[in-house]
């Protein structure tokens, strides 16, 4: 799979916006907002475009905070393997609306629905919510669901690729 972005809006109360995926990859899971990068885009442009497409929220690339890079590996389906660039965004315009792809909902961090998310999320998302930046790899069993192995490292800064995807 092409690389993807994953973006989590955070509001002034510290709540996190998640979206219930209505179709496609990760259907029926609560997820961050994002998708596959398109040719000619930077990762930041991809994150902003996907956020707008999936929620109607409008934001600027410079307001994204790069917080992680995760390499998702699927042991039985390498065609699903992808790297995801992860961002928080605290400054944005608009009220999230339901789209054909996602149903959005704000969650206080204490009530994030980890049981209805990708199984690795409960390991790495709390690190981000505690202010860490991370780089890591998560491998899934052949069922594409169970975590086979997870290796997450805290890093001082995310080395972002600033170039356009070709
Ligand atoms: C495995 N553990 C995971 N945990 C958390 N999030 C995960 C994830 N694995 C993938 N993701 C995210 O899922 C989105 C893919 O979205 P996906 O629908 O494929 O992209 P896109 O909108 O381009 O698809 P269309 O081709 O338009 O349907 C993208 O944000 C990606 O980072």
UniProtKB/TrEMBL annotation:
GO molecular function terms listed in the Swiss-Prot or TrEMBL record: 8-oxo-7,8-dihydroguanosine triphosphate pyrophosphatase activity; dATP diphosphatase activity; metal ion binding
Tree of life domain: Bacteria
PROSITE patterns given in the database record: NUDIX, NUDIX_BOX
InterPro entries in the cross-refs: 8ODP, NUDIX_hydrolase-like_dom_sf, NUDIX_hydrolase_CS, NUDIX_hydrolase_dom
UniProt EC number: 3.6.1.56
Keyword entries, A-Z: Hydrolase, Magnesium, Metal-binding
Domain Nudix hydrolase, residue spans: 1-130
Pfam family of the protein (one): NUDIX
Any one Gene Ontology BP term: DNA protection
Cofactor(s) this protein cannot do without: Mg(2+)
The protein's enzyme class: hydrolase
Catalytic activity, reaction form: 2-oxo-dATP + H2O = 2-oxo-dAMP + diphosphate + H(+); N(6)-methyl-dATP + H2O = N(6)-methyl-dAMP + diphosphate + H(+); 8-oxo-dGTP + H2O = 8-oxo-dGMP + diphosphate + H(+); 8-oxo-dATP + H2O = 8-oxo-dAMP + diphosphate + H(+)
GO terms for cellular component: cytoplasm
Function as written in the Swiss-Prot or TrEMBL entry: Oxidized purine nucleoside triphosphate hydrolase which is a prominent sanitizer of the oxidized nucleotide pool. Catalyzes the hydrolysis of 2-oxo-dATP (2-hydroxy-dATP) into 2-oxo-dAMP. Also has a significant hydrolase activity toward 2-oxo-ATP, 8-oxo-dGTP and 8-oxo-dATP. Through the hydrolysis of oxidized purine nucleoside triphosphates, prevents their incorporation into DNA and the subsequent transversions A:T to C:G and G:C to T:A. Also catalyzes the hydrolysis of methylated purine nucleoside triphosphate preventing their integration into DNA.
Subunit structure: Monomer.
Family named by the database record: Belongs to the Nudix hydrolase family.
Entry protein name: Oxidized purine nucleoside triphosphate hydrolase
Lineage of the organism: Bacteria, Bacillati, Bacillota, Negativicutes, Veillonellales
């Amino acid at each position: 799979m092409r690389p993807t972005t994953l973006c989590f809006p955070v509001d002034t109360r510290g709540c996190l916006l998640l979206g219930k995926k209505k179709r496609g990859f990760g259907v029926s899971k609560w997820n961050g907002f994002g998708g596959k990068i398109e040719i000619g885009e930077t990762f930041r442009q991809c994150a902003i475009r996907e956020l707008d497409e999936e929620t109607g929220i409008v934001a600027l690339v410079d307001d994204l905070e790069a917080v992680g890079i995760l390499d998702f590996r699927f042991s039985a389906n390498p065609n699903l393997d992808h790297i995801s660039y992860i961002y928080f965004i605290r400054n944005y315009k608009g009220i999230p609306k339901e789209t054909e792809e996602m149903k959005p909902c704000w969650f206080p961090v204490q009530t994030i629905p980890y049981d209805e998310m990708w199984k690795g999320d409960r390991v790495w998302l709390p690190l981000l919510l505690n202010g860490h930046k991370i780089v890591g790899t998560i491998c899934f069993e052949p069922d594409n669901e169970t975590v086979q192995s997870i290796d997450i490292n805290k890093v001082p800064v995310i080395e972002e690729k600033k170039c356009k995807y070709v």
